[in-house]
Amino acid sequence: MANIDIPIIQNNMIKEAAKVSIWHQLLSMANAKGFKKGWAAHQFMEIFGDYPKGIPDGIEPVTPSMRAWFRAKAEEWHESQHDRIPKGEKSDEGSQA
User: Fold this and answer.
1) What are the angstrom distances between the C-alpha of 86 and each of 20, 75, 91?
2) What angle is formed at CA 40 by the lines to CA 20 and CA 69, rounded to 5 degrees?
3) Exposed / middle / buried, residue 66 (Cβ in 10 Å: 0-12, 13-18, 19+)
4) What are the sequence ranges of the domains in the chain?
5) Whole-angstrom distance, CA of residue 60 vs CA of residue 22
């Protein structure tokens, strides 16, 4: 699961409020970055282990800890793309000399 600085969740009411808040923040980030709603749903799944079923859509200001999480995720993705072979180019692996 993702490592987000979420306040200690002690009861279901607080836990549900945190889920709603994070869902709204993810939707806000997706909207700001031009991502689809599915991106937000997958991020929610990574954080909580389930999809945001039954949580109404909304927009909420993004907290500094969520911004930091998003930056870390973006950096992780960019690093993972660094060693990828560009489309149209073939790897030398498996080629016969």
Assistant:
1) 39, 19, 10
2) 85
3) buried
4) 12-67
5) 9
- Give the three-state DSSP class for 57: coil
22-57: b (≥16 Cβ within 10 Å) or e: bbbbbbbbbeeeeeeeeebbebbeebbeeebeebee
- One pLDDT digit (tens) per residue for the chain, 97 residues: 556 555 555 567 778 889 999 999 999 999 999 999 999 999 999 999 999 999 999 999 999 999 999 899 888 888 888 777 666 666 555 555 4
Distance CA 18, CA 44 (A): 11
Q: Count of residues for the chain?
A: 97
**How many CB atoms within 10 Å of residue 92?**
8
